[in-house]
Amino acid sequence: MNVSFGVAFLIAGLVFLGLLSQWLAWRVKLPAILFLLVLGILLGPILGWLRPDKIFGLLLFPTISLGVAIILFEGALSLRLSELRGLGTVIQRLLSLGVFSTWAIISVATHWLTHFAWPMAILFGAVTVVSGPTVITPILRSARPNAKIAKVLHWESILIDPIGALLSVIVFEALVANSAATASLGAAGLSFLRIVSVGVTLGVAGGFTLGWILRRRVVPDYLHPLLVLASVLMIFALADALAKDSGLLAVTLIGMVLANMRDIPLDNILDFKESLSILLISLLFIVLAARLNLTEIRAVLGPGLGLLVAIQVLSQPIKVAFASWGSELNWRERVLVAWIAPRGIVAAATAAVLGQTLQAVHYPHAALFVPLTFAVIIASVLLPSLTARPLARLLHVDEKEPQSILIISANPVAQAIAKALEQAGFACLLLDNDFAQIRTARAAGINTFYAHPVSVQADRYLDLLDFGYMLGLAEDHALNIIASMRYKPEFGLDHVFILTDESAIAGRDRQQVAAPYRGRYLFGGDATYVRLSQLLDNGWQIHTTLLSESFSWEAYQEKHRSGFLPLFVITGEHILRVMLAGESIVPASGDRILALIAPSAA
Question: Which segments cross the bilayer (predicted)?
């Protein structure tokens, strides 16, 4: 009973510590993998509290494999082919010429720096060609490169993982066969064909079958996440049973197929898988790092740094040069793509599995295989995490913090607010399917997009990269609600706002839309579309006023006490803060106030 309680408490503690690591990574804008690996090394080799092989036994590596499969599937769900306009050739070359050039350079560098035998060095090169969404995504979030760079790195990070795992398996089988004096290129080739054929067949067939089930509503909505999870795990296990290590290719293809099928309800699935992936990433990195040995870690620090130099100075520039030749990427964008080359969970998990087998057959230097992989992972994540943002700024290929504002509707209220915000330095886009209102807004010089806010047209062609806020200003309150539900995943609940309505003012719970399904209410507690429209019709105008030491917020309120409605505060750092119903903001000196002001108070 005590042992069971101890294990349960340890697992619960790992989940909680994983949460703390993810939160700390968010606060300091670094990839969580760094904190998770340090935590694993602390709990395992340093303190000796976590011994994964003893606790999990034979279930350890099957569980790790299933976890990696879920992570890759979740990443593949974001791979939409429509994003590849003009960049498809670059990504194809990265996954072909780039993989082989990287493999060759890392293999040679590993042989020279570590004195691994050639077969072991070649295997290490195959294991470390991968990248991974678990490390690329937080780096991109921090560095904020332009859309072309972000798309290239995102696609490569997901698609290269099953390729690297496949390459590792082929090389490993040849390496083990060679140690048994039965090496055969023909056998390796047949193994390659078997893995690819099984992975592609089950992945594509499984993806289309799942898509058909989801589209036809054969299973109720609340079971969709469980259906997809169970299917992905089953297909992964079946693929691996038919052709060992074909499962990662299969689950990646399932995700890509679902992501590119039309009319598939994926929102619930994406939310569930994202949360599950964060949990799995946290646990996997802690557990894998806890298996390391301190003596072996110290022994590979020098070679690990040398390999990092080889990757950054030789491997990456050559790979990107091959891939981007004749493409629309300029030299600045190529430099940043080459600089960001982290290794992630697939390298860690593959090295752990293969390293254990190599040690079991007493292969020379096998004990250093896993620590060297982790040294490369840590160094390759830490370097771009600390330098990618400054380098992107230096090269002028960074995106500014998203400050543009998406406004639902092009009615007179929306036009008045958009003009005031644009004069204050915030780009606005009015989204509406009423062409008469769109035409009026265009005549006033306001940017517009002619489509229903939740239409297929908006989904396909509305580029939201620069947008950080949504304001629901439509006269139809239901449209504001629908739009807030659609754009909440894009901007986050804290940046989605809508006008209130009569049911909210009256506090009628039977009619008021619940908070999780709408944005936060704008401006005052009675700021409905009808009221704002009446104020504008009565001559109220939006004015921008700069506060100072001599003209404080209190003085501003006193001056306009006969009639004003504060709308926005723009801080001295040019950050937009929305005045919300039920919340009070006290502007400071240097802030600007945007408010509707009555004619008598102007």
Answer: 6-25, 32-49, 55-73, 94-114, 120-140, 152-172, 192-214, 226-242, 276-294, 300-323, 335-354, 366-386
DSSP-assigned letter for residue 400: P
Q: What is the pLDDT of residues 165-192, one digit of tens each?
A: 878 878 887 776 555 444 556 666 777 7
Check if CATH label 3.40.50.720 holds for domain 404-597.
yes
Taking only Cα atoms into account, the Rg of the chain, rounded to an integer number of angstroms, comes to 28
Domain ranges of the chain: 2-395, 404-597
CA distance 374 to 37: 9
CA distances, 415 to each of 409, 412, 420, 458 (Å): 9, 5, 9, 20
Closest CA to 107 of 298, 315, 268: 315
CA 36 to CA 135: how far, in whole Å? 12
Instruction: Report yes or no on whether pTM surpasses 0.90.
Output: no
Task: Determine the Cα–Cα distance for residues 187 and 182; give it in Å rounded to an integer.
Answer: 10
Question: Could you tell me the two tokens for 9?
Answer: 């408490």
Mean pLDDT, the chain, rounded, equals: 85
| Tokens 């992630």 belong to residue | 344
**96 phi and psi angles, rounded to 5 deg:** -120, -80
Q: Which two tokens stand for residue 102?
A: 């990287």
CATH 1.20.1530.20 fits 2-395, yes or no: yes
